[in-house]
Description:
Helix content is 31%, strand content 17%. The chain is of the alpha+beta class and 307 residues long. The chain has a domain at 205-306: CO dehydrogenase flavoprotein, C-terminal domain (Enolase-like, domain 1, 2-Layer Sandwich). Helix 5 (76-84) runs antiparallel to helix 10 (149-156) and helix 12 (254-260) runs antiparallel to helix 13.
Amino acid sequence: MSAATATASALPEFRAAGTDLSERRRSGLSRGPIVDLAATPGTIGVSWAADGSARIGAFTTIAMIAADRRIAAAYPGVAAAAQGLATPQIRHLATLGGNLAQRSRCWYFRNPQIDCLKKGGSDCPARSGNHLYHAAFDLGPCVAPHPSTMAMALLAYDATVTTDQRSRLTLADLLGDGTNGTADHLLAPGERIEAIDLPAPLASERAAYKRAISRTYAEWPLVEVCARTVLTGGTFRQVRIAAGGIAPVPLRLTACEAALEGKPADVENIAQAAQLATSGARPLPMTGYKLALLVGLVRDVVEQIAE
Length: 307
């Protein structure tokens, strides 16, 4: 028996829809007791404040978010990200809270016979092994990209997270900065997500989302981008661009944002800003291709917004 098998997680785990947990149970990666969660008032559905801000309960399914016309109008990047996630079957079960707190999709982590940092091991086997789908921004000891599409989209919207123990957590508070290779999130043992708050949309705000995948359907993104901005008088204001699939946490592309802020929304400015998407990148030997995908996606989504 390998060390990884011997130390497979025996800690209690929460189960809502269980779309991720079920797979880890079948593989033997999760062996501890299960604590079933049930929706309580305020943890399912969307509530709207008088200022137009929204609170989405953690038990709200991805399908509900994808189909909500008011969310699509106020937060089109969030709706589009939900629409592109997984398959219809998964979207109808998976919850927003579960998506934010899901575990790594790295094939070394998912193999119960292989040790890794997230299972108490001493190193990241993907770093010296097959890391074709891993990080292009090498931020820490683990090079698995963060799996949550919704976290990436919510980052672009400056969303905050409320748990049963803490309130108004930023996405960085929830997920960290990518330098902790032992955890997928910073929730304390027994802490559970209850709601996600989105600020009121700005006047003349626009947004778009796009992903690059290795096959046409039901695939995890190689790279994904969500961009939002206020577009007034043909000029970009309040630019936010987030990317996923490229680092151990979703990233804000601040160099791109700064290059677009206050600039006319023309093709030349967009192309120049998109080139800055790779600022700070440290690709692994097999992940350099993601940088070209990232530049292309940033250009595509911002051009879509500017149309």
